[in-house]
Design brief:
The protein has seven helices and seven strands, in the order ααβαβαββαβααββ. The chain is an alpha/beta fold. It has a single domain, classed as Vaccinia Virus protein VP39 (Rossmann fold).
């Protein structure tokens, strides 16, 4: 599996020619998440970015939610030293308090089936309101991603594999956002997931 050291991040994040995402794309992603949760009347005061990488969501979240507290959790010791993130894994991270929003962006595909399932189960403990989950799927690999920029050293699974496990504790709202069961959003019928 991938070693998450300086070479990996230089290729996929720092080099403009080979990076897999841009700050603008991540700004749009943060705006989408927060707009959806705001529309649903889900307050966001504490954010956990599980697998935060170089922290491309930190500034957009700070602009959108200046009073929210952002915690970056990262498995890469290199990035923890460089950016001061909390070192750990989404599979077993156990803070004292849960978060309003947990972001798990492009992390799960790096985990074995067993560890990815553990991570999804842990998302239910980490979040008391909402999670945003995105992972490279088998279909994404075939039809959506730029294979010249995307890391190939991953576990490809169908989206249904993730959804089946997420549905144990969450309801899908859309655009990667899942609400914890028991959290009642204020959405009009045509805005909700059950149309």
């Amino acid at each position: 599996m991938t070693e998450f050291g300086s070479d990996y991040f230089r290729r996929f994040y720092f080099d403009r020619r080979t990076r897999v995402t841009t700050p603008l794309e991540m700004q749009r992603r943060a705006t989408l998440m927060i707009a959806l949760l705001d529309q649903a009347r889900i307050p966001v005061r504490r954010i956990l970015d599980a697998g935060c990488g170089i922290g491309l969501l930190r500034k957009p979240f700070a602009r959108l939610l200046p009073r929210a507290r952002y915690t970056g959790l990262e498995h890469s010791e290199y990035l923890c030293r460089r950016y001061g993130w909390r070192h750990g894994s989404v599979t077993d991270f156990a803070p004292r308090a849960s978060f309003d929003l947990v972001v798990c962006y492009d992390v799960l595909q790096y985990l074995s089936d067993r560890d990815a399932a553990r991570a999804i189960a842990n998302l239910a403990r980490l979040s008391h309101a909402a999670v945003y989950v995105s992972a490279l799927t088998t279909r994404d690999w075939r039809a959506n991603c730029d294979k010249t920029l995307t890391d190939r050293d991953v576990h490809l699974r169908p989206a249904a594999w993730y959804a089946r496990r997420l549905r144990r504790a969450f309801r899908y709202v859309g655009c990667g956002v899942w609400l914890k069961k028991g959290v009642t959003p204020l959405l009009w019928e045509m805005e909700g997931p059950d149309v």
